Amino acid sequence: MRQHEGGHATTVAPGRWSGKGACGVPRSWNLCRMGHNPDVPPEVYCSGTVRSLENAAIDYAMLINDVFSYQKEIQYEGEIHNTLLVVQNFFGCDHPTALRIVSDLMTRRMQQFQHVAARELPVVCDDFELSEQARATLEGYVVELQNCMSGILIWHRGCRRYGADDLARRVHCFVPDLASAVPWRAVPVTR
Questions:
Q1: Residue 23 and residue 146: Cα distance in Å, rounded?
Q2: CA dist list (Å): 159 to 60, 152, 177
């Protein structure tokens, strides 16, 4: 995604969503690897196949966040780096249409993840002549990534950040050209 021009996100770029690194997804993947058997050479993790697997999972997880956080980010925080808003601006469509497009993108990324895990990862194992133990470690990594994606979805469904009642209790709300519901006053700084 390119930076905004005049307050609007301008283009959809391939790959992960650069503005979303703060949600911690890549760090979660690294935690999954920490306990792995050293039988898996680092070159395997650097292979295009494993990177494709991880990128599909990261994209899916970040898109989950964008779907759930849309109202909070747009209405309450003035954020413009939300995929749904980018899709709306890029395609000139309404929110429900953007949601369908993003849902389709999520489905495609999940299908990519499943394809790589089922078809391409076994080829990498053969190419690197990995032991049964190393193959089991990589199969376990796929399950760990699946668990991370599931956990992210479960967290978003159950957390108290995105519901209408939760958002209504927020102290401030970002809506351009609308005064804050809470009057602003200067607070003296004591030293």
A1: 17
A2: 18, 10, 30
Residue 18 has what DSSP assignment? G
What's the rounded Cα separation, in Å, for the pair 141 and 111?
17
Which residue carries 């980018």 as its tokens? 86
- At residue 30, does pLDDT exceed 70? no
Give pTM, 2 decimals. 0.72
| Domain residue ranges of the chain, discontinuous segments joined by + | 21-168
- Token pair belonging to 175: 């809506």
The burial class, CB within 10 Å (0-12 / 13-18 / 19+), for 140 is: middle
Gyration radius of the chain's alpha carbons: 20
Q: What span, in angstroms and rounded, lies between the C-alpha atoms of 190 and 33? A: 47
- Through-space distance between the first and last CA atoms of the chain, rounded to whole angstroms: 43
DSSP 22-52: GG-HHHHHHHHHHT--TTS-HHHHTSHHHHH
Distance CA 26, CA 111 (A): 20
Report domain 21-168's class.
mainly alpha
The total number of residues written for the chain in this structure: 191
Hey, what amino acid is at 115?
H
pLDDT digit string, tens, across residues 73-113: 777 677 788 899 999 999 999 999 999 999 999 999 999 99
